[in-house]
What we know:
The complex is a heterodimer.
Chain A: E1 8-9, E2 14-17, E3 22-23, E4 27-30, E5 33-36, E6 40-45, E7 48-53, E8 65-73, E9 77-81, E10 88-91, H1 92-95, E11 116-125, E12 128-132, E13 139-141, E14 145-148, H2 154-158, H3 163-172, E15 174-178, E16 183-188, H4 191-203, H5 210-218
Parallel strand pairs in A: 3-7, 10-12
Antiparallel strand pairs in A: 1-6, 2-5, 4-5, 6-7, 8-9, 8-11, 9-10, 11-12, 11-13, 14-16, 15-16
Helix pairs in contact in A: 3-5, 4-5
Chain B: E1 10-11, E2 14-15, E3 27-31, E4 39-45, E5 48-59, E6 72-79, H1 94-107, E7 119-129, H2 134-148, E8 158-165, E9 168-171, H3 175-179, E10 183-190, E11 195-199, E12 202-203, H4 207-235
Amino acid sequence: MMTEVREIVIPGEILGKIKEAKASYGTFVEGDEIISKFLGILKKSGDHISVVPLSGVYIPKRGDKVIGLITGIEKVGWVIDINSPWLAFLYLAEAVDEYVDLKRTDITRYYDVGDMIYAQVSDVKLGNVQLSMRDQMARKLKGGLTIKITPSKVPRLIGKSGSMINTIKEKTNTMIRVGQNGVVWVSGEKIHKAVKAIKMIDEKSHIIGLTEEITKLLSE
Amino acid sequence: MGMKTEEKLIVKGKRLDGRKPDEIREIEMKVGGIPNANGSAQVKFGDTVVIAGVYGPRPLFPKHLQRSDRAIIQCRYNMAPFSVEDRARPGPSRRSIEISKVTRLALEPALFLEDYPETVVDVYIEVLQADGSTRVTGINAASLALADAGVPMNDLVVAVSGGKVDNTIIIDLCGKEDNYSLADMPVAYMPRKKEITLFQMDGGLTSEEVKQIIKNILKSGEKVYEKQKEALKKKYAE
């Protein structure tokens, strides 16, 4: 495969006419023109025109699985930094299955400030994000290290049905959890090699033929 | 301003640095450079060097500053102590507070702030070397940094300064021209619809002269816009 770059558009660039196509994600309509909102890659599927941003913050969506850092403790739950413009909240009832007598127990016995958790976004109203641990995969992440990548590049890191991430896991003998919010948790044997590969995907996600380059890097 | 000087600023139709009156200095733009920021850019207009970093949208505290329907921009323009020949006193001054505000107002119309309620976009503009027209250079850098940060925008912002020295209308003032000019006029606009977002003037101009300067600015602005496009696309071209 050749190393070539997909078409990049800038904010304010006119992409098409409203009569000929439909404006999809990353675009807006002004007059009868479809215009890009982001610096990103132009995508045309059918008559839909969309722009996939090359950078940007994570926008929480219901059902997303994210990795968050506990930054605060309230009476009935935890405040969590999920690497997005808004802080998230995890209610005690969404985190613990057993009955908790709030008068007698200190909820830091479950999660404390500084803990990393893998959780699901259960509800989003702009400015108010709620998490839940009622998911099979949800748990506290012990040990290892976390790195941040651009959230819009998470699908590239995972690959088609997990092909990319599984290659990295196998070749470096590590455990990796990828949050939809661009936080990646790595633990295991060759952590630094895995981190190097993940960072490379983050930097070069727009290049066609990335899979070969990653395989080459991992087999060195 | 309008100080008297012995030296002629325009000799035989050429300016101090050999430019024609309606010619802009050499422009260099680079996107990226601050890995920790969400977006960053460096812009050079001749000897004026400015870097800009954008953080966010991110949670905003104290809470009373939050707007429930949109994000706010916090903008900080700062001159490094070594940016001028004398030492620039560190910290905010009357001048830098004003420029921070007008920069914020120049950038705001280009952003979709309503997409991120209760948050803040921080824009930091740092002047590393000052040789005139620092505020327009700063706006150009901030515009690139915002696009690089993935903040939704309806257009980029292009800024160019104009003015008058020795009764001649000029564009993109350098430091010396700025000091001894009869008038200087920084303008920022959004190129797609040619909407002006910053318009300041210091000195005296007739309305005819103002029209002429705006015309020249829009003409040179096209070159600046092309450079901005090129710089943004270059970051992802290998």
